[in-house]
Queue: 4 jobs
Job 1
Amino acid sequence: MNTQGTEAEERAAIYLQQHGLKLLARNYRSRFGEIDLIMRDGVSLVFIEVRMRKSERFGGAAASITPAKQKKLVLTAEHYLQQHGASACRFDAVLLDQAYNIVWIRNAFEA
């Protein structure tokens, strides 16, 4: 991962921790893909995709979480759940721009 991507993930993790989430894992990998951050929000397990985009051209950061990317995230999350279990979970997205302004989208998509 590039330095900017690593910085974006770190800023996202700090931001979410400041909002009460507990970090469980970073860059969780399976044969299906990778989840940037896995956190706990109360009783819910939260799988988080962090996206940074230099511009809004081509739809910006949110548009980069395509249906194909969502499918990989879901499969990777299922792999994590098989290993660790959870009663409730959701998929969030944290979007950053060049100035590291953060937009947190809870329940960004459904599995």
Note: The mean pLDDT is 88.
Job 2
Amino acid sequence: MYSLLTDLVRQSAAGLRLLLVLTVLLGVGYPAAVWAVAQPLGDHAAGQPVRLDGEVVGSALLGQQFEGERWFHSRPSPNDHDTLASAPSNLGPSNEDLMATIAERRDTVAAAEGVDPHQVPADALTASGSGLDPHISPEYARLQADRVARVNGLTPERVARLIESATSGRSWGFLGAPGVNVLELNLAIAQERP
């Protein structure tokens, strides 16, 4: 009995020491090492904040809602771009509510941009999986260009150049699709306004 109790205490002490060592290594050491390695990456390690006049106005990695005619609009978000509620709507393509929402979005975008509803690209109608996608397609940006140019007193050619400069290509040259970061494009529009 004494031997069994001694073994139990010895094994418990060894388990506790292992817990403490692993807690220090993995709970403190590893995060500190990752933080230290990431520091030379600058803003890439801090969520890629976007600054205007030294003040953080958003992140290049997270979409935001832009209201009004003077701005390019982001993709729809089922959670109003709330990072704490990041999730898809989980509605399938046969869901009547989703189909009604898409039809309503199509009509709204077509009316706002003065185009035929069939010209509205898919990313203007559907949310991304997280609901936080910061990019829109170049097609959706070009669809909004005339409105943004007119309201901001810019030429359509200048807005087209801003869209082109804000367009990023495919990752590694072949993954994904080209995209336009809406926050960066809207900041460029704000700086160009007369």
Note: The chain has two domains: 2-43, 49-192.
Job 3
Amino acid sequence: MTAPALPTLTTLVTGPTAGARERAIAAALRPGEDTAIILEGLADGTSPLAGFDGSGWQPALHRIAPGCLCCAGNLVLRVTLNRLLRRPPARLFISLADATHVGQLRIFLSAPPYDSLLSLCSDLAA
């Protein structure tokens, strides 16, 4: 994996429901910006991220099964990130179904090899 010219701006998103987290992400998106979103958990059928706008621009959505991303879901997250970072987006949102270990996830994302690939921003609370 080669490092991009600039690290991917990465925001962890927390909130009580998948819908609330997805609405917060949708509000933070900048149409046209190369963006990827990792959504933990199942869609509730009314995602504001589906068909984001009529211009044809759509962020790359990656949905993974719910489970603590720093514990049980670590391997799934690692594989998803590694695939995604082969062609790194400018911006990445990671939506967490459970914010209990958000600090541990930040440590995981700040360690090699992700430390040179990601630039962690402030968390977004839905």
Note: The mean pLDDT is 84.
Job 4
Amino acid sequence: MDIAGALSFDHLKFLAAGFKVTLYIAFISIILSFIIGVVFGTLRYAKIPFLSKVVAVIVETIRNLPLLLIIFFTYFALPEVGLKLSPSTAAIAALTVFESAMLAEIVRSGLNSIDKGQKEAARSSGLTYIQTLWTVVMPQALRRMVPPIVSQFISLLKDTSLCVVIALPEFMHNAQIIYAQNINYIFPIFAVVVFMYFIVNYCLSLIARRLENRQA
């Protein structure tokens, strides 16, 4: 085990560059998947004729596919139909599609968890269905959704490591390049990788707990 060689300044700088890519991909994917997930989850909850069923089929299909397959599809299959994406764009697209489906189910379940009596009371007070949904149901549901949504975001951050298969220069990709140079680098490099993932995900967990306690 060569700790000094593995954790040289150049290697740490290279790892930092990869971690920056990981955080960038995760951040963009989180924003996009949250927006799409809320829209799709709401559409499923609203039970709009035909549209809700189409969304349900899309969500359930994606949820039952492995993320790795979606990553391969966006990077290797789409160019066959004339849509060539860079590794970073393909990674964001795949993660967004997959996580949107997961979040849509969380949103739908959260909306369904609100007592029907509150909805009926809001409607009887003169609010429209849309007003009831966005001013009464959604705010309460979002509070209940915080823990599972943050857990899904943590999973998304970890799932960025799968993008190593399309040569995305993210954290794990750069780590592999370093320890491939010398077998004695493996343990120190993996220790750094584990530590960085733990720190970021633990911070997200603390934020989730604080939000949950504040809303309790």
Note: The radius of gyration is 21 Å.
